Amino acid sequence: MESTEKTWTVSEKNLEVALGWLADAPLFIDGDQITAFYEAVVKPEGKIGRVSISLDDIQERVRSVGGGVGGEAKPPAWFRFLGFADLGVKVEANGSLEWKDGKKEGKEIEFRPVDSPHRQLVHLTLHYASKVPNRLRVVREASVRGWCEPSFICDLPRALVFADFGPGTKFIPMAAEVANGEVRTFYKEMQSHDGRTSPPPYPRRSGFTEEGYKEERREYWKWFEDEFDTHQALKIVEDVVGSGGRMHWIAYRVPLGAVVDSEHRESQTTDFPLHMSVSGRGGFNTGVFAYDLIKRGYDHGLRIVGTLKSEPDMNVLAIFEK
Fold first, then answer.
1. pLDDT digits over 68-82, tens only?
2. Is the CB of residue 57 less than 8 Å from the CB of residue 51?
3. Spatial distance between the Cα atoms of 69 and 60, rounded to a whole number of angstroms
4. Distance of alpha carbon 73 from its chain centroid, rounded?
């Protein structure tokens, strides 16, 4: 499938989709990372400080990036959707959300600093929509290439991405650090479907041209993609972690280049897989990172919110099931 900017550009509909994800209890949420990100970006002035965001500002900025948000005489659909819960959003009496006689009466939403990572993630999303909508992306099909290109990743501020990984996505576990401080690798335990071969050695840069080295890396990662089996992968995670205790972090490789149909058939990928970092910090059961993420993620897909860094790499903030 050819990638197009329309797939992820900030728009009224995409904001409604993103906020809709957040109207759910997450399978996983990294409270420490979200809080640090919230403090750095939103900058609440202490526990009693407030942060105001202009609705007009959000509408104008989304229009400039996404090509329009519809009529001016009614509140945007994505904001009406915030009625699902309080989520720490407060509207002052002098900024009511009543639209009447074709005239907007409300102009601002006001945030009070909150300790809940889930609410902080909502605030972060609205803050990005208001201040830097070009750094907020809603990716409705993660297999559509282009949403994690280097130029976008390296720009500032750091991108906030809502990526929808469809059925058939391969979350390939590579390594993890467990509670006793040991780093356990998973990829060395993997076998081919016929049980005859193990993963090839990782290619060394020496002896290859730059293009030749890239091709060797493609072939290396292709082995894992071709031989991936959900039952084998989740069993390896469960067995290797063993008595080491809950995971501090776990790393996956996620192929992105395939177009997957409803029967999990796919075309060959042509690029390196996404590196995905999930920091459990000892707060989640192993099953979240094994059965729920690997097996159910493959069968049904997952919705993942995160920030991007070079390679490409995603630091996962929250994961939502379908």
1. 444 343 445 555 555
2. no
3. 8
4. 33
